[in-house]
Every structure is written in structure tokens, then in C-alpha cells.
Write the C-alpha cells for this entry.
Amino acid sequence: MQLSPEQQKAIEQQKAQCIFCQIIDGKIDSKKVYEDKLLIGILDINPASKGHVLLMPKEHYPIMPLIPPETFKQLIDKTKEVDGCVKEALLCKETTIFIANGAAAGQQSSHFMLHIIPRDGGDGLEMLDISGKEAPKEEIKEVSAKIGPHLNAVLARNLPALGFKAPAGTGQKLTKEQVLQLIDSNLQIKNIILENPEQFKQLVPKHPQLSQLFKDFDLDDILKQVRQKSKPKKPGKLSLDEAIK
Amino acid sequence: MAECRYCEIAEKKQNLLYEDEDVLAVLPEKQAAKGHVLVAAKNHHDNIQEIDDNELEHIFYTASFAAASLFDKLEAHGTNIIAKTGSIIKKGGHFHIDVIARKSEDGLNFLWSPKRLPEDEMKEIQSKIKDKCDMIGVKKKKEVINLDRKPEKLESSEEKASEAEAKPLSKEGKKYNKTEKKQEKEDSHEDKESYLVKQLRRMP
């Protein structure tokens, strides 16, 4: 994930005020239970239960997508091991792993961390046992249509690059509408199509992912649709919104 | 056949968002919020410790990308990633992660009332967990060292401990030095055989 200079500056400011960065630098005391080159594990001083461990990268990452692969993989590997240690030390059979991305989700510190919370029957932490209500079918369809193609494309693109198995191609065959949605969600591609469609047409055969995406479709047709969806540049060809007005 | 809820989901492909060899992502019928993705391991495991590193990373990466999709496409204000690691997996048979889209004032609250534990109790817990964590990696190293050091122990320190047993072994060890080297080349393909088995084979 690439950050703008403003975003980088904001992170630097966050770091300066981050309690956990100061703990990692040894400026504030903590109850350390695990440490290696990339990660640190400490007891939460306001625990949900006895043995509540916070496992985090030493480097300050405000959100999960910013964590580089080497650190992320190490975090997951060590979560498994530290979790095993917590279970052995406390003679407990169950733990909950909890991550909050964003204040709305309950993220209390800007330093990304993963919680390992020992569990027991009647521990008052039943809200962490996810259940849910039967959702209306229209809602499920809506959510599926919105995130399905995007998630598939993202996973098919990223998982092999990270060293994991992924289904050949894009898992689900994309329809024309899904391809248009995908372009809509990728500002970089959308802008090139709008500003310089000829350049984009030349780019497609050179990029394996782009040529795979468009291989079943007429490229000119797709580009026409993308341009029509945005501002109409050709007089006489009105978009739906304009026609309604 | 499919007593297992997750195997059934994989078979039916109901509301399936993504699937590959190790992982599937679906929208469960019971949604904790609008935008609740269930990411599950396709293989059966009794607990998280049984899942190998690559598979576990794969599952968590899928959950992380699912969270990003919820954030981008459903305009969530945040996401929660929650998983149970132990006895519940044994019951259900599949490690799974709940990825939940969050919005401010959505009525959900996963936060706990923090406990206040006395300082000496905290120190005791820290010490117990740290002792176990200090063994991470060390256990594996010890196993490797033992396999390599067996010949040295037999020839030097164990000789003193049990001379009667050790002496004939070491004498014959010297006799077999030249043939040992030849055999080592032959045995290089069978490196996995323990040293003791090899020694036993060479004895008349």
C-alpha cells in the first residue's frame, strides 16, 4: 500500500504520541511475555481476562493493510505459538483472537495489535462469541453483489504473489457488469480509460492481469461503457441521469 | 454425510464469495451486522496449533482482504476480525474467522469491561506465560541437536556412564572407520535413518 506524503506525515505524528512505541523503545514499563526481531507481546494492563496478551509489530502500523508481508506472516505464525503458550501456562482450552480496525470497531490505539484473550465458561465475554440474526435475502444478495467480485479479484491477484494457492484465473468468472464495477472501483485504471483510452488499449496486452481480465470481452465496448457511465463527452449521447433530468 | 456445517457450506456453495484449496469465504445466513463474512479453513483441525504456518497465514490473509473489501465496497467505518482457537474448533471441526463490517452507532459492542488484577497476580501470570514463550523455537532446536550429537555422546561422555555397553561399540566403531566412510556415502540417501539403527546394522 502506497502512502501520500501527507499520510506519512500523519503516521509520524501518531508515532510520536504512541504509548506502545514508547513501550517498545523501553521508555515505558510493560509486562513483556514475548519478543523477537519484528514483534512484541505484552500483558494488557486492563485485561478482558487473566492472561490477556497483546501481540503487535514493533513498527507502528495504524491499520492492517499497511503491514508488510514478512511482518504479517510472522505475526500470524507467532499468534499460533504464543496462543499455545498462553493455553499451557493458564491451563485453558479456549482463547479468542480479536482484531479491531478503526475506532468504530473498538480500536483504542493507533498502533496495530492483535488480542489473545483466554476464555472460560461464564467469563462475561460472551459478546465475542459471534452469533447474528437471520438476514433478509435481499440484503445478502446486495452484499454479495457489492463485495463478491471485488474480493475475488483482489484475492486472485494477491494470494499467489504472497505465496499461497489460489484458484486458476479469477475463481468466479466475471460478468461484464462485474468487470465494469471493478474498473469503477479502481481509480487509476478508470482515469487512464477516461483521459487516454488509446494508451490504455496499448497497456492491456502488456499486463498479464489486464489481458486476463478483458480476454472474454470486446475491449472497445467496455471502454465505451466506462466513458458513458462517467460524464458524457459526446453531445447527443446522454447518460441515464442526464436523461431523467 | 456432511455432519460438518462447514463441509456442507462448501458443498452447497450457498452465498459463496470465494473458494480455493485451503479456504472459503461465505456470507453466513445469520449476519452479526450488514456485511459479515465467514472465512473458514476447508481442512479439519482440532485447534489452531495443528494448522501449519502457510495455511494459517493464507486464512488470515483472506480475512484481511475480506475486511478491506467490506471497508471499500460497503463503506464500513471499521472492521472486526474475531476467531476462536481451541475447543470450539474441535466441536465444529473447522477453524473459522468472523469478519464483521462496523459503523459508528451500529448497536454492536465487542468491548469488554477491563478487569483490575493485583500487581503480584499480574507478575505471576507474566512469569508463567513468558516461561512458555521463551521455549518457542528452542524446543525445535533441541530436537535437531540431539539427533546430531548422539554419536559424540556414545563415544565420550556415555562411555564413562556405562563402560561395559559403550566399549564394544567404540572399539568396533574404530574398526569400521574406513568402511563407515564408504557407507556414509551410500547412506547419504538414507539420512533420515537414526544413527543407532545404522550402528546396529554394522554389528555382527
